[in-house]
Design goal:
Elements (H helix, E strand, L loop, with lengths): L1 H29 L7 H26 L10 H28 L6 E11 L2 H4 L6 E6 L7 E6 L1 H4 L7 E7 L7 E7 L1 H11 L4 H14 L2 H14 L5 H12 L3 H8 L9 H13 L3 H14 L4 H13 L3 H14 L4 H16 L4
Antiparallel strand pairs: 1-2, 1-4, 2-3, 4-5
Helix pairs in contact: 1-2, 1-3, 2-3, 6-7, 7-8, 7-9, 8-9, 8-10, 9-10, 9-11, 10-11, 11-12, 11-13, 12-13, 13-14, 14-15
């Protein structure tokens, strides 16, 4: 019974150490701090420490976790050092996790080039837990930055590839890499110079600009796409939705201004009408929203958008009616409830029309 207790206790300790090491590697892969050697070395030490821990546990299991005192051996020393390394990596993992998870700043994007992929399975013949990319530094020209590469990125990256690095400033002020992806802009421009009607390439370029927060370029590229491919309504509408969610209303107008006259579509009218209203062009936006409401009276969104448009136009009674209809179709809109409390007294005092 005593031997069983020792085996269970030893197993729990080793499982805990392996869990700490695994979590540390995960944190370092997700919230990557670039550097020449340090970041990769710490992730590698966590992997090595895990291997030493597993080897010690397997040796103990084979020897039966005996109670008899045994002399200090190299195996015990390696295991102790591995445990210390894992705990150190665990503390570092907490640091990079907090630095990245609590960072709410927008990323900055830097075009660069991959010089080499380290520990790549194409060279080793096996997949290893930690790989990295050596890229030309965006901070210190002429030097190299080493960045850990996540498993989902490894199959899409190669040496000599032009890439875009997204860097956030960090909660603790330590910059970290949130994304590494192919530089779609450079590749797309090269293709479009030869094949200007490559539809998928134009879509990819617009979406790339949208991911990077380059909203004006995303809108212009989408408008060019819509002019070349007028039968495809789905893509401009999808981009307009994305820009609306980011409150980029001027860009929504850019995307849909040419589309709306060609297509009698409720969603186009909703998105363009809302964008025009939010940009102060309510005389143009409200008719489009009213048209969308007539086409889809069961949809809460045109009523919701009209409520804000009427309120901005100084028509509280019509705004209250639209907001009440929106809440009736979609209960639980806290911003509408707050606005109704403000508008109802104004609507009661407004002269009847």
């Amino acid at each position: 019974m005593t031997r069983l207790v020792r085996i269970v206790r030893l197993t729990l300790v080793q499982v805990a150490l392996c869990a700490i090491a695994s979590w540390s590697v995960w944190a370092q892969l997700v919230y990557r701090v670039p550097g020449r050697y340090g970041s990769v070395a710490l992730a590698g030490l966590a992997v090595v420490g895990t291997g030493a821990t597993l080897a010690f546990w397997l040796r103990a299991m084979l020897r039966g976790a005996s109670r008899r005192p045994r002399p200090l051996t190299l195996v015990h020393v390696v295991h102790g050092l591995g445990a210390v390394v894992i705990l150190g990596c665990g503390f570092y993992g907490v640091f990079v996790f907090v630095n990245g998870a609590f960072d709410v700043a927008d990323p900055a994007h830097y075009p660069t080039e991959i010089v080499r992929i380290g520990m790549d399975e194409t060279e080793l013949g096996v997949r290893v837990p930690v790989a990295w990319a050596d890229v030309r530094s965006w901070r210190r020209p002429g030097t190299i930055e080493r960045v850990l590469v996540r498993p989902d990125e490894r199959e899409r990256l190669w040496a000599g590839q032009a890439v875009m690095i997204s860097v956030r400033p960090g909660f603790h002020g330590v910059p970290w890499v949130s994304r590494i992806e192919a530089d779609v802009e450079q590749r797309s421009r090269d293709v479009l110079a030869v094949l200007p009607d490559a539809a998928q390439v134009r879509r990819d370029l617009a979406e790339f600009y949208g991911r990077l927060g380059r909203h004006a370029e995303a809108a212009i590229t989408t408008r060019e796409y819509a002019r070349r491919f007028p039968d495809d309504l789905q893509f401009p509408v999808r981009m307009a939705r994305l820009l609306t969610a980011r409150h980029r209303f001027e860009e929504v107008v850019t995307v849909l201004a040419d589309v709306a006259p060609r297509r009698e579509d409720a969603e186009v009218s909703m998105l363009l009408g809302h964008a025009l209203s939010m940009r102060g062009r309510r005389s143009e936006g409200i008719p489009l929203l009213e048209r969308a409401r007539a086409m889809q009276p069961w949809n809460w969104w045109p009523h919701y958008a009209l409520g804000w448009a009427y309120a901005g136009a100084g028509e509280p009674a019509r705004a209250v009616a639209s907001f009440q209809k929106a809440v009736g179709l979609r209960p639980g809109l806290p911003d509408v409830e707050r606005e109704l409390q403000r508008l109802r007294p104004l609507a009661a005092r407004a002269p009847a029309r």
